[in-house]
Amino acid sequence: MAAPDKVDKVMEKLVSLAKRRGFVFQSSEIYGGLGPVWDYGPLGVELKKNIKERWWRSMVHEREDIEGLDAAILMDPKVWEASGHVAGFTDPLIDCKQCKHRFRADDPRIKGTPGAPDAQCPVCGNKGTLTVARQFNLMFKTFMGPVEEQAAVIYLRPETAQGIYVNYLNVLQASRQKIPFGVAQIGKAFRNEITPGNFTFRTREFEQMEMQFFVKPGADGEWFEFWKAERMKWVQALGVRPERLRFHQHGPGELAHYAKDAYDIEYEFPFGWNEFEGIHNRTDFDLSRHQAASGKKLEYLEQATNERFIPYVVETSAGADRTTLVVLADAYREEAIEGETRVVLRLLPSLAPLKAAVFPLVNKDGMPELARTIFDDLRKTYNVFYDDGGSIGRRYRRQDEAGTPFGITIDGQSVQDQTVTVRDRDTLLQERIAAAKLVGYLAEKLKG
Ligand code: GAP
Cβ < 6 Å from ligand 1: which residues? Predict the structure, then answer.
């Protein structure tokens, strides 16, 4: 990992580009900003949507054995008791009695033993003011209905997975699937993280892309290996540099309360190696607990063998926001061109928010009219951008920062022969092609 000041600089540049170009804004910024919450701007919403759609296509549309679901965020609180989240979804929390800051117990900045006189607060520097660690539940609570009392407490889901478990029989029966089969969903999750940070990496509101694969007990090891390999392949196909990706197996101290085995897919962010997706063997933990708590049989009858069992679950759990951050961080480059530094997002063209930008070279001599016609034609198929402001060089640079893979320029010759130049963001090569062939040209280039 790079030195801390260099890390801050890289992240600062990424956050600044994200704001400047409309990828990500601070939530409630005009009120000073709601720290660990972020909003996606015009380009960010497209990038994240492209990633989610790609995930959905590969998980649901391209597989016969996976069905989609969109369960509600609010669920019966009994779900979270049965799943173990009420009792066990906690992080150890330490308070400073002097400055009132709060820390996770594993915060590397804490020196000494919290609760003892030698412990030093990393923020105010006082000694002996840190409390011993206590368990802090990460679930957000609110009230259902008009009365704010204990009986009305309801939680914002901290993972989307439970919506799948409680619907597993509904989906199985409605879709006439047989085990092994999976259920996939994309949706918001909420965690009252003690120390959120690193831009959109750790936030209190985020989106997950989760898939629960139900298998016969005993087949879980093989399916676990299968999904581990599949997910790494999928991530690499996003164009992320493979040398910045690795697996990390959870040690006994790291395993979640439901997991028998777990691997993270990690990316080397500017702030170090960190997880953005997990593959978990959750055994029959969740379904057994829901069966016991609800009194509803969640067994599966395998017709070929006449055996009844509660399926084991292999889960793939990705963060849509963290995957978007991986894609952004990996695409960010500063390159020297003709004595100048250009900032460019080398996004996989199919993920790029804008597929092309259309530029009339000058605003006269029939060029804007032709450029508008081409733009109107292209946007029936693609998300494209029209820009006639400033020098052509500046217009190229703006689109480089947005990660737009193709710049289409309409010049004097275009008006004569209906051809245009197409500039490739990465190679900077320019090709002259017939305007009528642009849709097919882009379709070819945007494959993959
Ligand atoms: N259902 C299993 C589960 O939720 P997890 O490892 O706690 O497992 C899965 O979370 C993924 O969700 C993470 O790899 C990460 O991408 C995303 N995620 C979790 N907490 C997050 C947070 N506070 N901010 C942003 N993304 C988060």
Answer: 159, 161, 191, 193, 202-203, 206, 208, 210, 275-278, 315, 317-319, 321-322
